[in-house]
Each structure stands twice: as structure tokens, then as C-alpha cells.
Design brief:
- The protein is mostly helical.
- It has one domain.
- 78% of the residues lie in helices and 0% in strands.
- The longest helix has 31 residues.
- The radius of gyration is 19 Å and the shape is globular.
- The two termini are 14 Å apart.
- The relative contact order is 0.23.
Length: 299
């Protein structure tokens, strides 16, 4: 259990890099879809070399198909969510937007209670209510005038998509047969989903000049390396094994609270000390309620 907790806290802190990169990418004139496309190609290539060395051939074909489809959908939806998040961060406060989106961890928590027998303790219900309160508080503040309302719509859409993504990525850990599937296969299926959505986005835009200029930018490769280092290495070594370890202990529903709580703390510090964002007291209260709610759900 301690290994699972340590692993997911470490992965959660690394997610701060994702928020930072997606917020910076448009400022460097990078299309978020192109950034995700290059990263997905690297991940698929790396996993293709690693996969033959795993025991993938020992897994039942039906289980392999459904888990693969689950993670493919996870990747595709996550790509869409990151594009929305990047757009929202250009119009609103990055720290608050990150907190809103990460609050979607209430979805896998509720799924665990409804479908997988996770005990709905009073303290966990209180934590859920605190997270909902944090979402309400995030809608107030001087930064949220009507002319800036678009970022709230995009952030809320990203919040809903994140809830679906978190349920999908957490689902296989509840089934013993799926737990045996190598993290390399899971990572590759997620990357294939990201690649599919990113390619569709680029083709839909048909802005080939932008596409070429992005590939010439040093920032594309710096950001791609940063995302892939933490996304691929940490997912294989820490995230999936950590989620499985907690699921075997009957604590599968707290995986995302641990991940989200860690990344929320990391990104809040980043937005305050690096981006130097000025938040109102209500918005600080929103962050506090969100973090407190996540901790209470873990109890």
C-alpha cells in the first residue's frame, strides 16, 4: 500500500509539468495538438520496441481488446481535454483552471462507491461536498467578468471530459485479469488514442504553414521531451503499478485523489511563484476547499 501511495504522489507532482507546458505552448505559438502528436509518436515508437519483451502473449485476447479500447478512448479524450485546457489558460487564471479540471476526480470516486463497493464514509461525503464548494467559489472574483466568461465554459467542458477520462483509466484496475496487462501496452494504447485525436485536429485545421513552423520551433521539442519523460517513464514505472497496488488493497478509488492532490499542490505553487498570478481571497478559498476535499476523500 505504501508503495502505491508513494508512486502516485510522485506521478501527481510530475503532472505539474503537463499544466505548465499546455499553458505555455500557445504563448510560444505552438498548436497544442501538434505538441501532443509528436509526443504520441515518440511514445508509440518506444512502446513498440518494449512490448515484445513483456508477457503480453499470455493475456486473454478478449481482455486485451477491451482494455486496449478503454485506454485508446482515454488517450483520445485526454487529447481533446488538453486542447481545451490550453485555450482556457490563455483567457483565465491558470491556477484556478487547473483546480477546476483536477476536481473531476469526484467522478471515479463516485463510481467506486456506486459500482465497486467503496464505503461511502461521512468524511468522504464531506470531502466530496468541499470539492463541489471549491468549484462554486472558483466562479467568483474580479478576473471573472462577463467578457472573460469563455474560459469558464472551456474549463467546465475540460472538467467533464476529465471525469470520463479518469473513470476510463481507473476502470481496468478493478478487474484482476486486467491488472496483469503490462503498463507498456496500456501506455501504447493511450498514446494511440492521443495520436488519433491529434491527427484529426491537425487535418481539420488544414493550416500547413503553422504545422511546418511548429516543427521548426525549438520549444516544440523541449516541451515534447519534458512531457514524454514524465508521461512515459513515470506511467510505466509508477502510475499503473501504483494504481494496481492500491486496487489490490481495496483502495482503488483513492488513486486519483492522491494523484490530483499532489498535482494540485505542485501547480498552485507554480502559478503563484512562477506565473505570479494574483488571485482573490475567494479563489484561494476555492483552492483550499479543493485540496481539503481531496484529502478527506482519501481517509
Amino acid at each position: 500500500m505504501l508503495w502505491g501511495i508513494f508512486s502516485l504522489v510522485l506521478v501527481g507532482l510530475s503532472w505539474t509539468v503537463v499544466g505548465a507546458v499546455m499553458g505555455l505552448a500557445p504563448k510560444k505559438k505552438l498548436e497544442p495538438a501538434v505538441l501532443q502528436l509528436t509526443g504520441a509518436v515518440i511514445t508509440v515508437t518506444a512502446c513498440s520496441f518494449l512490448l515484445p519483451g513483456t508477457d503480453i502473449n499470455t493475456i486473454d485476447g478478449k481482455t486485451l481488446f477491451w482494455v486496449g479500447a478503454d485506454y485508446w478512448a482515454t488517450g483520445a479524450l485526454n487529447c481533446i481535454m488538453l486542447i481545451l485546457m490550453a485555450l482556457a489558460m490563455q483567457k483565465g487564471p491558470n491556477g484556478i483552471i487547473w483546480a477546476i479540471i483536477q476536481s473531476a476526480m469526484i467522478f471515479p470516486f463516485m463510481t467506486g462507491m456506486i459500482f465497486f463497493g467503496v464505503e461511502p464514509k461521512a468524511v468522504r461525503i464531506a470531502g466530496l461536498l468541499l470539492i463541489l464548494l471549491s468549484l462554486a467559489l472558483s466562479g467568483f472574483g474580479k478576473e471573472n467578468s462577463p467578457k472573460n466568461g469563455k474560459w469558464k465554459l472551456m474549463a467546465f467542458a475540460a472538467f467533464l471530459i476529465t471525469g470520463v477520462v479518469q473513470n476510463l483509466v481507473n476502470l481496468p484496475s478493478y478487474f484482476e485479469s486486467a491488472q496483469k496487462i503490462t503498463p507498456v501496452f496500456r501506455s501504447m494504447c493511450i498514446a494511440l488514442g492521443v495520436l488519433s485525436a491529434a491527427v484529426i485536429r491537425v487535418l481539420f485545421q488544414r493550416n500547413w504553414t503553422m504545422f511546418k513552423e511548429n516543427f521548426k520551433s525549438k520549444w516544440l521539442w523541449i516541451f515534447t521531451f519534458a512531457l514524454q519523460f514524465f508521461g512515459l517513464i513515470f506511467a510505466i514505472i509508477f502510475q499503473f503499478p501504483g494504481m494496481d497496488a492500491l486496487a489490490r488493497c481495496g483502495l482503488g478509488s483513492v488513486s486519483y485523489p492522491l494523484l490530483v492532490g499532489s498535482c494540485l499542490v505542485g501547480f498552485s505553487l507554480y502559478s503563484m511563484f512562477i506565473l505570479k498570478e494574483k488571485n482573490s481571497l475567494l479563489q484561494f478559498a476555492s483552492l483550499g476547499c479543493c485540496l481539503a476535499g481531496i484529502i478527506m476523500i482519501c481517509l
